[in-house]
Every structure is written in C-alpha cells, then in structure tokens.
Amino acid sequence: MIFMGSKKYPTENEYDSYISKCGGFDNAVTDLEETTFYFEIDEEYLDGALDRFSNLFTEPLMLRDSICRERDAVESEFQTNINSFSSMREQLMGSLGQDDHPCSSFSWGNLRTLKENVTEDELYDILHKFQKRHYSAHRMHFAVQARMSLDELEELTVRYFSNIPSNNLPADDFSTFNERNAFRPDFYSKVFFVRPKSNICRLDVTWCLPPSVKDFKVKPVDYMAYLLGYEGKGSLTSYLRNRTLALDVQTGASYGFEKNSLYTLFSVSVIMTDKGLDNIEEILKAIYSYMRLLKQTGPVEWLFKELQDIEATSFRYRKEKEASDNVEELVVNMRYYPSKDIITGSELYYNYNASDIQQVIDNLNKPTFNIMISSSKPYKGITYDKKEKWFGTEYAEKDIPAEWQALWDNAAPIPELKLQERNPYISTDYTIFATQDDPETAATHIPAIPEKLLEDGVCELWFRQDAKFNLPMTLMYFYFISPLPMQSQKSATLTSLYSSMLKFQIAEDLYPASIAGLNYEIYAAEKGIVLKVDGYNEKLPIIVDEITKSMQYFDKNMSADVFNVIKKKLAKTYYNEIIKASKLNRDVRLKVVQEIYWTTVERFHVLKNLTIEDLGDFSRKYFEQVKIQTLIQGNTKKQDALNVMRNVLDNLKSGEIKNVSLIESKARQIPLGNNYLTVKSFRENDANTVTTNFYQAGPVTPTLNSRLELLVMLIEEPLFDMLRTKEQLGYDVSTTIRDNFGILGYSITIHSQEDKFTYQHIDQRIEDFNVKFVQLLEEMPEADFQLVKRSLLKRKQIVDTELKNEMNRNWAEITTQEYIFNRNKLEMQHIEELSKQEIMDFYKQLHDNQFRRKMSVQVVGCSDKSIQCSQKTADGELENGENEDEDLDREFLIHYLETDELGRNYITDIESFGKTLMVYPVTKIQF
Q1: In the chain, N or C terminus with fewer CB closer than 10 Å?
Q2: Under 8 Å CB-to-CB from 723, ≥6 apart: which residues?
Q3: Taking the model in full, what pTM does it have?
C-alpha cells in the first residue's frame, strides 16, 4: 500500500510508472522484524525517483479503494506459495509456539485475515494507525548508492527525507519473550510427522538457542553450522551418504523466523533416502554422536582461524555487488551493527572466543530439541490426524520413542566421524597478471573481446585475460556437446542422470575446494553436459583436471546402491517439477515451439526403466563424439588456458562429431490465428492457474529484435497497473521477449487462481489489454516515448560490476555460435532509429488477424467449477497420492481442455500438432 500514491503524487501508479519509464525497477521485502523498500534507476533520474520515493513515507495516501483491492494481491501471493514446503514448514513450526509468543503469529496474511474477520472501515483504520505508529523517521534507515560525491548524496537525502514525520515512540516491547518461552513443551517432547505437498523425504532436528544476531564478532552459531555442514571426508554428510542413508545435510539458521532478536532455531536437516527413512535411528545416532564429538573436542582454534582467513580473503577479493543488492543489504545491516561494522559485520569473523563457541556446543548437547519428519511416504504406518490452520498441512505427533531417547542418552563419538583436516585447496598466490609488468598499458594491450586460441574437430577454445576487475579470479566454462541428448527421450534423461551421478561421485573429494573459494557447477543442457568452474585462479586448473578425470572413469566409480539413490532423487525432482503449474506451462509451450524438446513428463516416464547398465553404456559412448566449447576468462595467462584445454582433451580422449546436423537447434512456426494449448494441472486441489499468451513474430533481424525489446519495455508498467494493481487478476503479472533459436516473439504471463478467475477470463483480459495498449501508445506523449527509449539505451550501456556478467554475455555468444561480442553496441544503433509510429505499426501488425500467430498456453488449476486434476494411473483412475511410491509410479497423462468458441484452434495432441508445423532453418542474427 505504501507504493500506491502520496499526497504530492496522488496517482496510484506514479512511483512505479516513473521508475519503469526510466528503465529501473523497484520492490519491497517484508520480513518478521523489518520491511525493506528499494529501487534501482539510472543516475540521471535519481533526483525524481527520490522525490517520489520519499513522499511515499512522508504522506502516503493508502486510499480505501486501493486497500480493498490490494487484499486480493495478498491472497494471491499466499495461494501462490501455499504448496511451498519451506513456507508450510515455517508456519507449522510457528503453530507449535506459545500462544502469546510472536513466533506463533500468522506471518503471511490472506483474505481470511484481511476480509472475512474485519470490515473495510476497520481495516482502513488499522492500517493507517499501524503506518503512523511504526513508520516513524527515528525507526527508519536509509542507504543510497550512486557515482556521485558524498556531499551530493547527503544533500539529496536531507532534501527529500528530512520531512518524514517522527513520533519518537519506542518500538513494541518484546523483552519478555525469549528462546525459553518461545515454544510449547510438546515442541521438545514429541516427534512430528508431516505430509508435504511435494515429494520430499526429510528429517529436521532443531534446537531453540538464545538469539545470536549480536554475536557477530565471533559468529559461534555460523561456526558450528560450518562444522556440522561440512561434506568432506569424516563429516556427518559423508558418513550418511556412504551408507546411502541421505543425499544431503543442511545446517544452521537463516535470518527471519529462524534467526531473530528473540531466539535462534538451529537445525540439522537431513535429506533422506528411502533407506534413511526406514532407518531413522541410524541417522539420529550419527547426529547425536557428532554432537558428542563436538563436546569432546571443544572449540578448535586452528579451524576457526582457517575459516576466518577464508572469509577475510573472500571479502578482500569479493566482486562488486549490484547497486540494489548492496543498499538492500546495507540498510538492514544498519539496524544490527555499529556504524564501523555495517559493511563487514555480516561477513567477517572478527575474533576467536572459546567461551562463546563452547556455550553453543553445550546448548547443542542439551536434550531440548524438536524432531520433525517430513515425507510423502508415511513413516511406518503413521496416520496424519491433525491439520495446521493456515496452510492446511497434515501432520501427526507422537511421544519420542524410548529407543530414540536412549540413543541420545547413550550417544558417544563414532570413529568414522571426525573434524576436517587442514584445507589443501586454499590459495596462497594472488598475483594479478595483467598489471604485473606494466600496469599503465595493461588495459590497452589486452583485446576487448575474447580471442580464439584453438579450434579443431573436437574443441574450440576462447580466451580473454582480464584487465578491468584486477582480481585473482578466473572463470572456466565448458560445454561438452554430444549428439546423444537430442537423439531420444532416453538419451536426454540419461544425460541428466549422468550429471547427477557425477556430482555425487566428486562431492566428497571436492567439497574442501568449494570452501576455499573454488566453485564448480555441472548440469545437463539441451545438447550435453555443462561444466562451470570459477574462483581463485591459482588452483582452479586442479579442479578442472579432477572433474574431467572423473568423467573419464565415471563407470568404474558406479555402484548399484548409489545408482538407485540418485535415480530416485531425480525422479522426485521430475515429479516436483511436473506438479508445478509454471513448469508444466513452460514444458508444453517448448514442446510445440522447438523441433526437439523432451518434457519433464516424458523424462519421468523414461527414467523408471533405466538401469545401471544403461548409464554405464551411455557414459562410455558419450565422449566418443563430442564438440567441446570452452571460454576461459579472468586472471589467467594465455599459455595456462591452453594447458587447461589440452589437459581436458588428454583426460577425455574424445572424437569429433561426424554429422553436425544432429546437434542443430531449430524452432517451429506457430500457425496463423489464435491457437490454444489448455491442459489441466497435475496437482489436485490446487487452484493455481498459469496463463502464457505467446505471440510469435518471426526470424530474428536487428530491427525485429530492437522493436520487440522496446515494445516489451513499453508494455511492462501499464500491463502491471491494469491487470495486477487494478484488476487483481494475480500476484505475478509479467511480459518478456522470447527467443527460440533465433525465432522471436513476446509473451504475457499471469499466475492466477481458478476459483477466483477462470482461465477463459484471464485470456480475455490479456486480449482486452492488447486492444487498450494501442490506445495508450497512441496517447503517449512523444517525450514519454523518448524517455523509455533512452532508458532502454542506457540499459545497454550498463557497466559490468563483476567479471561473471561479462563472462556470461560472452559465453552466450559462443554457445549460440553467433560470436557477436559487441552486440549491445550494435543493438543500440537500431534502437536509436525507432520511432513511436514504427512501434505502433509493428504492434498493430503483430496482432492483426491477417498476420497474428498466437499460442495461449494455459495450465488450469482446480476449482469447484472445473473437473478434477488429471493425476492418473495407468488405468486412468484418479488417485490422491497416498505415499511417495505411488507418486513415483504414477503415469501422468496430459488432460487437454477445449471449448466451442469460434475462431480458436485447440491443440489436443502436442505430438501430432507439432509434426504439422513448418520448421525454420537454423537462424542466426546478421548485423
């Protein structure tokens, strides 16, 4: 409501409109103890933005009509998150709090709290009283960042923010609340069994500790999370993984519900396998034993110092943050840290204090903790006989079994569990090569764009030595392209299974490297496996060498037990994606638009029948024919880059792809007219609907691309204002440009609730907006049009704040094989030439019935007005998903919907429909 007009700027969307037209963005984040408002905008328009921003706090309007409408936005946001496991778990934990403790509050809000139990007059009065009581200058903090002098920034701050009223009232007194009275006795004496709405198998053991926010000098809670969450040899994670009891262990507490001024909820969260669920006693024994190990060894100074040095080095050489991220973090830090520690308080370990650490160890060795088991497969016949009030989470509670209590009482260190050894991957050489010889000429003698160092049938190596950021960092990206992933659903699924298995195989050995600032990422892409490594350049080649050697010997490191665990994990991942409306919407859209695309449903079905022999055969064949695209950029010399590439080639011993047409990506042409792909959601009793209206424009040209970019920017704000703010169709309303292998278009997406607005209504309102937008464009003053265009041009000129931004832009040019490394500069030339009339004519033609190629993709949620969702077994019968095994054995059949409305082409079989479409040739932009 704060955003919706002020006395000086009473138009409801004035602030948002100004920020958007000037090429910026804004948002607000509500947490349990603070609300943060922020925006980012080009420096040229900072003055006007601060004027509008400050007036929202000086004299906000919060009009009655706006308040009544915005209730629906709160409800929509709540419904969008109602299936989120983290949100559900947090609210369930809160429901176990003492009734008078703040932790037991409902922290979301919905129509039930904002409409059903309060009149409009009461809500209006309560909201205005709340604003006057709490939005007082003496309790507010402000941070601003710009390339201006401090005097100029101070002058702007004083000019615009000194008029915010102050009531000088103290904040609400919470001094009687603490960790000792936060939760009911049952929180500690019962085991809670939870039925999640996603396919999850997880054990949480949670201690309620004293608040730790003020312990930032030592950070004993973070230090303990570091020890417990370690994944290398001898760790709790390693112990559980090696016994296939768990896939992952997460430890610690995040700010908000878990970490605040009243208490700290320290959790050890174990992502269990089926075997782990059946043997929870073994997992609990390991956790309890590790706690005893910590008590036995006590604080270890050298471990603390090593972590202290790692974080200090990370801070010293950290990348520059985006302006909005930086001020958002700093303004919250101002509330918690002394002025001299605002920048470093959340990141550095200042000093070692054994007694502070020992206190946390002692607290973690007290038998006052909560046990929560969340699994879609009921634990040993448990019946869920309770339901949480707000999210409807089903759960049960039982007394802690005597044998589990005995595990704690008799816990002792296990020989296999031990604290980590000294980290061999910590860098010691931070020399900057670009400035080593002649700092003055470094930036001029190094090419501005990547240069190709090597190309043959198997690889192409691109390289650029950094001379701008001057950090001891390098990024190395590798794309191992193979014909196999595009060959069949089976091969595509095996590619994902291979990458998941590979990550599991190397996780333990390379975990110390990730702690030391050497990061790696491995994932399956459209044409193969992507490997990305980044960090301190000194030892980065070692990581690449170890990973590529593991690729070569992959099949020799496989085991049947691990294969089954990873396969089950991937099946759960697929399942959880399938039941998300937004994921299904994307899947079915791309299945139509791309010539080759394997949906998650297809992969899910194929995965069931894959064997360890299939994966072994696949891993041996994969590198027989590959094309390795590589980009190395940063604080690395040319010869070192060549050495890395040659080492990779030696490790993999790959052959070249004989038929390159097998790795070509192509898009299909959407037929003329209004095409509808409408399917039911796979999640039962979920009202969330996702509608994407996609308008295909055609093969990319510089002119078409510039027109679409400007058009989308012009659409953004009025679309949000009309369909989200005024009509409250859904919490998430957006538009974006679409590029499918060089075939362009744009789309409008709305996340709505089917029991509030039908999918037909959503589509109609988007089309009504399309008509209205023509009028808005015609009436737009030329000065406003030029302002938006200038803002788009300024976006193209934004300076990279970190090496990764530049790297990712160059990497996209390489993987698309367009190699236009100065793309932004070339695009600006075409944007400069655009006129308002040209955009109007282009938009009208795009939506003219003679030329229109529209595909409306709708994944429809459940409501009383619609049929049940299409979760079916092989027999076609609806099931409720009683447990995890039923979920993972389920056959998902797409349920198409159609109406008898004239002028609509309903797609009722994606596979058959796709085969009738024209396929564009391989399309690249030509400047």
Answers
A1: C
A2: 729, 730, 733, 750, 765, 766, 769
A3: 0.93
Q: How far is CA 273 from CA 258, 403, 800, in A?
A: 25, 22, 43
The pLDDT confidence band at residue 437, using thresholds 50, 70 and 90, is low
Same domain, 699 and 572: no
Q: Do 238 and 270 reside in the same domain of the chain?
A: yes
DSSP letter at 869 equals P
Pick the last residue of a domain from 642, 663, 684: 663
The predicted pLDDT at position 52 comes to 98
Average pLDDT value over all residues in the chain = 94
Percent of the chain at pLDDT > 70 equals 97
Q: How confident is the model at residue 435 (pLDDT cuts 50, 70, 90)?
A: confident
Number of H helices, E strands in the chain: 32, 23
Is the pLDDT confidence value at 867 over 70? no
Q: Within a 10 A sphere around the Cβ of 439, how many other Cβ atoms? A: 12
Give the end of a domain, one of 106, 128, 161: 161
CB 331 within 8 A of CB 144: no
Question: Do 374 and 240 share a domain, yes or no?
Answer: yes
CA dist., res. 64 & res. 1, Å (int): 10
Residues 6+ apart with CB under 8 A from 911: none
Cα–Cα nearest to 678, from 666, 663, 693, 667 = 693
Q: How many domains does the chain divide into?
A: 4
Same domain? For 656 and 683 the reply is: no
Residues 617 and 683 in one domain: no
Contact (Cβ atoms closer than 8 angstroms) between residue 870 and residue 680:
yes
Distance CA 632, CA 897 (A): 49
| CATH code at position 356 | 3.30.830.10
C-alpha to C-alpha distance for 786 and 794, rounded to whole angstroms:
12
Alpha helices in 171-279 (DSSP H): 186-189, 220-228, 236-242, 274-278
Q: For 710-766, how does the pLDDT look when each residue is reduced to its tens digit (9 = 90+)?
A: 999 999 999 999 999 999 999 999 999 999 999 999 999 999 999 999 999 999 999
Residues 840 and 732 sit within 8 Å (Cβ to Cβ): no
Tokens for 73, please give them: 């936005």
- Beta carbons within 8 Å of 465's beta carbon, 6+ residues apart: 433, 434, 446, 633, 634, 635, 636, 637, 638
Q: Which residue type occupies 457?
A: G
- Residues 877 and 897 reside in one and the same domain: yes
Residue 306 forms part of a structural domain? no
In a domain, 817, yes or no: yes
The reply to whether 96 and 203 lie within a common domain is no
Amino acid at 494: L
Domain, as residue range, for 654:
442-663
pLDDT of residue 421: 96
Q: Average pLDDT, stretch 543-567? A: 96
Q: Over the stretch 230-273, which tens digit does the pLDDT of each residue have?
A: 999 999 999 999 999 999 999 999 999 999 999 999 999 999 99
User: What does the block give as tokens for 29?
Assistant: 């984040």
